[in-house]
Amino acid sequence: MPKNDNIDNIIDHKLFTEQDIHNMCVKLGKQLTEDYAGKKPLIVGALKGAIFFLTDLVREMNVKEQIDFMDVSSYGDSLESSGQVKIISDLATDVKDRDVLIVEDIVDTGLTLKFMKELLKKRGAKSVKCCVLLNKKANRQIDIDVEYYGSKVGNEFVVGYGLDFMSFYRNLRYIGVLKPEAIKLAANK
Ligand code: IMP
């Protein structure tokens, strides 16, 4: 692990291996291929956490799709949602009459997905669904339909495969749980 050299001080344990993640992508890709057959969905990746998931997922989908990205943020560098979602950078594609599939790394409070879904519906999308890799249900603050997800996770902070802590550790190939002491240390810096 040359890129993140002190990783053993940071990761408590691995939650999902590369193989686990691959299996989730294959399963979701198969389902999405069936559900979007004959359609031309616009895949909207939520930056930056969804980058690796999106690239692996779309290559498991056998549909005529287009890809665009949107950067929305509610966290900043914090571990908890600020409750305020804002657009950092917007889509270049018109979503009017499109079947839109939002691809997101993790759903936690649900505020980010709710914001994105409502915005894209308001802009005239024909349908708006979402596919998230991880579903952190314990912390949900609002009722939101999560149409597709790879796995549930508990109320723990996870990093890797796009998921970050203070913008670091996205490039881990696996997903691991952050050590509580790493969180405390960062908070005291
Ligand atoms: P929500 O609006 O609270 O559902 O938050 C969704 C966003 O929170 C995700 O796109 C992530 O950026 C971030 N997030 C929530 N939980 C975690 C986690 O365990 N690790 C890393 N990022 C997380």
Any key phrases for this structure?
6-stranded mixed beta sheet; alpha/beta; 189 residues; binds inosinic acid; 9 strands; 25% helix; 3-stranded antiparallel beta sheet
Query: How far is the first residue's CA from the last residue's CA?
Result: 25 Å
Strand order of the largest sheet: 4-3-2-5-6-7
Number of helices: 4
Structural shape? globular
- The unreliable regions are none
- Main sheet, how many strands, which sense, barrel? 6 strands, mixed
The hetero compounds bound to this protein are:
inosinic acid
Number of strands: 9
Question: What structural category arises from helix and sheet content?
Answer: alpha/beta
Q: What is the string of SSEs from the N terminus onward?
A: EHEHEEEHEEEEH
**Mean residue pLDDT:** 92
Our Rg estimate from Cα atoms comes to 16 Å
At a glance:
With 189 residues, the protein is of the alpha/beta class. It is 25% helix and 29% strand.
